[in-house]
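FIELD: query
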Amino acid sequence: MRHPDDHPQPPSTSPGPPASPASGAFAPGAQTRDDRLLSALLTTAFVVLLAGALLRYVLKHGDSDRLPWILGLSVVLAVVQVAGQARPGSRRAGRVRLAVVVACWVVVVLLAPSFAWCAVPLIHTALRLLPTRSAVALVTALATLVVLAELRLADGFDPNHLLLPPVVAALATGVFVYLTREATRRQHLIDDLVRTRRELAATERREGTLAERQRLSREIHDSLAQGLSSQNMLLQAADRQWDTDPEAARTHLRTAASIAAHGLTEARRLVHDLAPADLAEGAGLAQALATLAARESRDGLTVRFHAEGADTHLPDQVASALLRTAQGALANIREHSGARTAALTLTCLDDTVALDVADDGRGFPAPEPGGTRDPLGDPDPLRGHGLPAIRARLRQLGGTLAIESTPGEGAVLTATIPLTPATPPAP
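FIELD: result
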């Protein structure tokens, strides 16, 4: 019996594009659309090469007693490969199928060397399924067997038969390993970027939450807390005068009730949109300050208001900040300065708005610009929030706060906010 094969024309040996790096397994959940397409391409290429080799063997060696074995093993190879494409299963199942296919292919190649070039799709499958070292070892073994098969088919020594299979296998392996490592590095970079973005988003949420808490703290301090403080003082005064001067005590009670009603309005407004109640329904800042001055003119303190320029163009945030500033300043004047008169002066220019709050009280040492406590000597550790809150509110709008005061000569507080767009200074 002569040698089963002569000199077959080998099919294209181009390794084709390597598998998608990091595609890993043939498991349905782990495969992308490109992975499935590549698996289908490898299966199709293997079946086509197998069919071509089988057809050639039948045409040239149809009377060989090896034909039933070669035909049966070819059918097994085709069925196992197609079944693996139809039902990918897990990585372990893929490796088992690969082992079965390689074992059958080795037997077929030993019987008919022309089946050797079916190894090209097997090389890609091994690289996709196995760890790098195991895949390289298997590829080396496959390439060696292909070289031996080619030498068996050759009439004489041909360097191409010795060099072509190892070069094809080396190129396929090298390109695949390189792309896999590049994909791994790229994936690590993407993971780092995603993690950094999540951390940045979490940081921004925390900073936003903190800023909102600080803003609410200032709003409550300049509205509800100041009103409750005034009510407390009035109720204490009414309690002291209830027996000696009932009429004065009733006056204090009526004033406290009026402050409580206004505080209730403020509370409802805070719940609704956190805007000052005096600015509701389109009231301008000048009107709101005039109302505030009239309301605070009681119990020996006279508050006057004067405006220069129109405030119709003031943004809502600017108007709200200056009104809160006036409320906080007047509350400090009433509680700490012992002043008889106070003056609110609103100055509106084209690009700046300023509010001056002056009093003729006892004054105090002017605070440092970066100070965090009110310079009012209040022993209560829960107090002393007014001036830092005012300064923080103005800073958010790019504004500044200036204080001029000398003990015994009163104080002047000046809040200035630019009306042109500006970048607020960093807190």
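FIELD: remark
The two ends are 95 Å apart (CA to CA).
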